[in-house]
Amino acid sequence: MSPILANIYLHYSLDLWFTRVFQKGCYGQSRMIRYADDFVVCFGREADAIRFRQALNERLSIFGLEISPEKTKTIEFGPLAEAKAKRRGGKAATFDFLGFTHYCSRSRNGRKFRMKRITSSKKFTAKIRMFRDWLKANRTLPADQLMEKVASKLRGHFAYYGVTDNSKGISRFANEVRRLLHKWLNRRSQRGSMNWEKFNLFLKKYPLPRPRIMVNLFASS
């Protein structure tokens, strides 16, 4: 219920205020992207971003809400930020949103700026931990049932994280799942006889879905 209640409450306390009040006073372009209680606000002018940060605190306090200081930051992001960072010999700042780390990059031919995404390290670690705990609790299931559930979990992960530019993120997850699967299958086999050769034969009998991009976020590169 929490995401539903957050959507209803923040629609009136935040969304409408932003579009009907604050946005009208901005000097440049602005946009807010929100999912439940997690949101990112983009501004074309730094002055608008600074003013928003202060106004946001005042607005939310009216409704007994406050932002999390450790999860909130104001950064430069985009083609200009990328160019500035290169001149300083560094990289532009990144931000995490909905399980992805968003970063400044370029299109495949290098000519156009493109924001890219990869599974955030925090979310990746959490997902691996969840799978490890599940596998530890269910490793005694019959092989066909176990592998059916593992395949289902991988398909679910690819369906969410398999977006443009995140091939590396989902491939890394699939490799870690196979590593953990081999580890626990080897533990339950007699005398630890499930070596990598036998494990690969096992995967031929019970194949797992391969990581692939499921969602194309760009019409063209």
Summarize the structure.
The chain is an alpha+beta fold. The protein is built from seven helices and five strands.
Describe the model.
Helix 4 (about 120-140) runs parallel beside helix 6 and helix 5 (about 145-160) packs antiparallel against helix 6 (about 165-190). The strands form two sheets. Strands 3-4-5 form a three-stranded antiparallel sheet. The chain is elongated. The two termini are about 40 Å apart. It has about 220 residues and is of the alpha+beta class. The chain has helices spanning about 1-20, 45-60, 80-85, 120-140, 145-160, 165-190, 195-205, and strands at about 30-35, 40-45, 95, 100-105, 115-120. The model has no long low-confidence stretch (mean pLDDT about 90).
How do the helices and strands line up, and which of them pair or pack?
Layout (H helix, E strand, L loop, with lengths): L1 H21 L7 E6 L2 E6 L2 H17 L16 H9 L7 E3 L2 E7 L6 E7 L1 H18 L4 H19 L5 H22 L7 H10 L16
Antiparallel strand pairs: 1-2, 3-4, 4-5
Helix pairs in contact: 4-6, 5-6
Query: Helical percent range?
Result: 40-55%
Radius of gyration over all CA atoms, rounded? 22 Å
Structural class: alpha+beta
Beta-sheet strand percentage? Answer: 5-15%
| Shape by Cα distribution | elongated
The description of the largest β-sheet is: 3 strands, antiparallel
Q: Give the overall pLDDT as a whole number.
A: 92
**Number of helical elements:** 7
Q: What gap, in angstroms, lies between the N and C termini?
A: 39 Å
| Low-confidence residue ranges | none
Across the major sheet, the strand order is 3-4-5
Number of strands: 5
